[in-house]
Amino acid sequence: MMNNPAPHASDAYDETTDFGYRTVSRDEKKPLVRAVFDSVASKYDVMNDVMSLGIHRVWKRIFITTLAPRPGLKLLDLAGGTGDISFGWLKGGGGATLLTDINAAMLSVGRDRATARGYLPDLTFCVVDAEAIPVPDASVDRVAIAFGLRNCTDKDAVLREALRVLRPGGRFCCLEFSHVQVAALAPVYDAWSFGVLPRMGSMIAKDSESYRYLAESIRMFPDQEMLASMMRDAGFAHVSYRNLSGGIAAIHSGWRI
């Protein structure tokens, strides 16, 4: 497996940050990430199937079970994009849902999908930067972010904001590609990520470079223990994580006490 140093929490104060394997100024990253998702928005769900061989659907079901939907609970879905987590929350009996994303193109696809599925009356859509959430303190019961945290420039700010908007007793859950824990999987995973995936991106989305970035961004993301440490530093209690598929993905959870 290609080993690249994952960023430490203190990197939040650096003037530069990662964009895949490139080092860019912090001001550059958001426009670059926005361009990636503008490019892939219409094919995002198809490419999720390609990237994970369909296993992301199982991971998301486990994630939604972890969120424990109930009618009286309000969900803030950060980087919610095309809506899978919000839809699963509502299907599971969850309450009012705010579906947000920094990328308007992704959110537009999510709105179209919500309309087709009859979820529109139960959703509020908003273009939101997860590093500065325009939601009052202690106003939601769950904060979810699935496959979005690694694309944020200041991950520590996202965690602090998630804690701020949670009510006491509320829970933050993050589903993200992580660091493989099974040695035998590593070379296969690297070959898939850096060999097959960009070619599939070129064929399906007509964009190989965006999918190369997505593969690189996974490798640059903090590993399981580091992300757990960042969550504790942000103020979350009872932080835990669960590896999925040998650590290809992981669910991190923390509570506001």
UniProtKB/TrEMBL annotation:
PROSITE patterns xrefs: SAM_MT_UBIE, UBIE_1, UBIE_2
Homology family: Belongs to the class I-like SAM-binding methyltransferase superfamily. MenG/UbiE family.
GO BP annotations listed: aerobic respiration; menaquinone biosynthetic process; methylation
Residue numbers binding S-adenosyl-L-methionine: 82, 101, 129-130
Organism of provenance: Brytella acorum
SUPFAM superfamilies documented for this protein: S-adenosyl-L-methionine-dependent methyltransferases
Residues spanning the membrane: none
HAMAP family cross-referenced by the UniProt entry: MenG_UbiE_methyltr
PANTHER family per record: 2-METHOXY-6-POLYPRENYL-1,4-BENZOQUINOL METHYLASE, MITOCHONDRIAL (PTHR43591:SF24), METHYLTRANSFERASE (PTHR43591)
Protein name: Ubiquinone/menaquinone biosynthesis C-methyltransferase UbiE
Lineage start: Bacteria, Pseudomonadati, Pseudomonadota, Alphaproteobacteria, Acetobacterales
The reaction(s) this protein catalyses: a 2-demethylmenaquinol + S-adenosyl-L-methionine = a menaquinol + S-adenosyl-L-homocysteine + H(+); a 2-methoxy-6-(all-trans-polyprenyl)benzene-1,4-diol + S-adenosyl-L-methionine = a 5-methoxy-2-methyl-3-(all-trans-polyprenyl)benzene-1,4-diol + S-adenosyl-L-homocysteine + H(+)
Record-linked InterPro entries: SAM-dependent_MTases_sf, UbiE/COQ5_MeTrFase, UbiE/COQ5_MeTrFase_CS
